[in-house]
Fold:
Amino acid sequence: MQALRLEKVKNTRQLLGLITRNADFQKGVRTSQEAGESFEHAISKGLDEVDKAKAAKKKAREAAAQLPDLSAATRALFDNPSSIWGKSLEDLKALLEPDGFTPGGYKGTSTAEKFVRQGPPYMEIRINFGGGQHYPDVRDTPWYYIVQKDGTHSRIIKESEIGSFQGGDIFNEKYVVYDGPSGAKLGGPKKDKK
Structure:
């Protein structure tokens, strides 16, 4: 059994990648080593943890794709985040509330409104008019923030206004950024620089 599990690791380079970059693998190996088990058993346990994590992610993706109770218009906002561009607070309220989103609860410093659906999966949409850490001045053109059904965080903003974005890197490790008017994807989450 152990030999079959180790065959999954095709070469030393792949093993090194698992050891250095995969937290699930590291967890399995650490648990096995703490129990005093052999190196081969530790590697096998690490591979088991990777398999479990992959299965859980697949299950979450499949669950996220199943949103039969959303209207086509609300589903479109999550399938294509830039399609939110130009929607007013009133538009969002009329669109989201019938689909189970509740308004309120935004605790930031800017002039913004937040709509949340607890799920599963958790989904959130914010319309932000500025006046906070990212844009000190209240603006006529809002920017939007979406937590999509798969957990992806998106910012939808006018590309020409990115230079005035303050209080952090708009293209940080967490966000996919879209130009609202064109719908173009401007950037995605940064990868670790390891």
About this structure: The helical segments are 2-7, 12-21, 23-34, 39-65, 72-79, 89-96. The chain has two domains: 2-65, 72-187.
